[in-house]
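Ops channel
N.P.: pipeline sanity check, posting one input/output pair.
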């Protein structure tokens, strides 16, 4: 089944976002404060094993912050006529090694003479990175992530296709919700950022998934004619 998702309404709910950010940051902060309290009250406590947990909590805050900064930073954006082929090859080269460590090959297949899209290059890279990373993380036994780009119905489509665990239907509806993650070390911000960026590009994201077989995420862009 194909789910066309338009999460733009959700993204405009700034209050909801602020609340969830506050929540996500407060939990690790509370635990950090607890440990420091413990050390202050009992100076002989063997701190070694607590430092490890404290370090993990700090890393989590750091990770959430760096993803948020990408969203919040008032970036000087420059929308340019952008060639999809070079974007795809840049990102696949970037993630190639990271994928190989997990026995995953990233394969690209970009149609010749594909029209350009109007885009902010760094943001489009960010979307592709988010999607390919999700594909990699969905394949615990290795496999292939295929990145395809082609023209269809007057649109440029870029697909990220994995052979991973797939996404249950009820979960597809929640993708793009801030902090929705099923991963122990996930932030649940990747899809939200991707929806936001695609919306700014007058584009769209659709998701097709089969449990146990894999997932196809399709980005659609209007063709850019000079
Ligand atoms: P994160 O990757 O940090 O968990 P995302 O916003 O990127 O956050 O993804 C949210 C959730 O969507 C993931 O935790 C996962 O459950 C699900 N998901 C996204 N992409 C895929 C995929 N290709 N295959 C399976 N599940 C996925
Ligand atoms: Mg992700």
């Amino acid at each position: 089944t194909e789910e066309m998702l338009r999460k733009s309404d959700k993204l405009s709910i700034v209050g909801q976002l602020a609340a969830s950010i506050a929540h996500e940051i407060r939990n690790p902060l509370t635990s950090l404060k607890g440990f420091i309290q413990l050390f202050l009250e009992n100076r002989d406590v063997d701190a070694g094993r607590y430092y490890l947990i404290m370090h993990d909590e700090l890393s989590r805050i750091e990770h959430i912050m760096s993803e948020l900064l990408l969203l919040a930073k008032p970036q000087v954006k420059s929308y340019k006529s952008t060639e999809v082929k070079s974007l795809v090859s840049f990102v696949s080269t970037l993630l190639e090694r990271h994928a190989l460590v997990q026995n995953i090959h990233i394969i690209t297949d970009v149609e010749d003479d594909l029209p350009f899209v109007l885009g902010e290059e760094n943001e489009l890279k960010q979307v592709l990175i988010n999607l390919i990373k999700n594909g990699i993380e969905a394949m615990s036994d290795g496999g292939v992530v295929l990145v395809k780009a082609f023209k269809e119905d007057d649109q440029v489509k870029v697909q990220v296709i994995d052979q991973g665990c797939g996404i249950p239907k009820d979960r597809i509806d929640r993708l793009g919700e801030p902090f929705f993650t099923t991963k122990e070390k996930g932030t649940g911000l990747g899809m939200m950022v991707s929806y936001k960026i695609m919306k700014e590009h007058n584009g769209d994201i659709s998701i097709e998934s089969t449990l146990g077989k894999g997932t196809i995420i399709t980005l659609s862009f209007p063709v850019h004619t000079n």
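N.P.: looks fine end to end. The helical segments are 8-11, 14-41, 48-72, 84-100, 121-138, 169-172, 190-200.
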